[in-house]
Amino acid sequence: MDLILWRHAEAFELRELTDDLDRALTPKGERQAQRMATWLNRQLPAGTRVLASPARRAQQTAAALERRVKTVAALAPEGTVEGLLAAARWPDAREPVLVIGHQPTLGLAAAYLLSGQAQPWPVRKGAFVWVRAREREGITQVVLHAALGVDLL
């Protein structure tokens, strides 16, 4: 199974809003989301399941893909690694899963999957970490398939 953890692009600060879920992408964030979505669309299989946080900035990032997106409450900013992995059906899903969410949950999930410990690994705005579960000699292994920041596109 492939699991792609994509952090939402740059968003406005919380200063003028009372609800963190209402934060929108900045113009720079809109460009970041579009650039990364273009790259991802060339790489992702057609059957990739796309899950996104209900936060406006994650929904806007997801919209750049122009694919069907399922909004999942467990992916909200206060979500947990356990909630993220359950939503993605890790490692048993038959199709690749792209999760659009937030820090620190994405970094914690990447660290947990790759090292066995949920550590606060940073994932930059607009960047993704792509991991793959594979079976070797009856043992499930997790390998880093790709990691890319939008500044490298």
Structure description:
The two termini are about 25 Å apart. The chain has a 6-stranded mixed sheet, sandwiched between helices. The longest helix is centred in the first third of the chain and has 17 residues, at about 25-45. It is globular, with a radius of gyration of 15 Å. The chain has one domain: Phosphoglycerate mutase-like (Rossmann fold). Helix 3 packs across helix 4 (about 105-115). It is about 30% helix and about 25% strand. The protein has about 150 residues and is α/β, with parallel strands linked by helices. The protein has 4 helices and 6 strands.
Key features of this structure:
153 residues; alpha/beta; Rossmann fold; 6-stranded mixed beta sheet; 4 helices; 29% helix; globular
Layout of secondary structure:
Elements: E1 2-7, H1 27-43, E2 49-52, H2 56-63, E3 70-71, H3 81-88, E4 97-101, H4 105-115, E5 128-136, E6 139-148
Parallel strand pairs: 1-4, 2-3, 2-4
Antiparallel strand pairs: 1-5, 5-6
Helix pairs in contact: 3-4
Measured by DSSP, the beta-strand proportion falls in: 15-25%
Biggest beta sheet summary: 6 strands, mixed
The quaternary structure here is single chain
Gyration radius from CA atoms, angstroms: 15 Å
- Class by helix and strand content? alpha/beta
* DSSP summary: helix tally: 4
Indicate the percent of residues in helices: 25-40%
CATH class: Alpha Beta
**Biggest sheet, strands in spatial order?**
3-2-4-1-5-6
Mean pLDDT: 96
What is the fourth-level CATH superfamily? Phosphoglycerate mutase-like
The CATH architecture classification is: 3-Layer(aba) Sandwich
The helix-strand sequence is: EHEHEHEHEE
Total beta-strand segments: 6
What shape does the CA trace take? globular
What is the CATH third-level topology name?
Rossmann fold
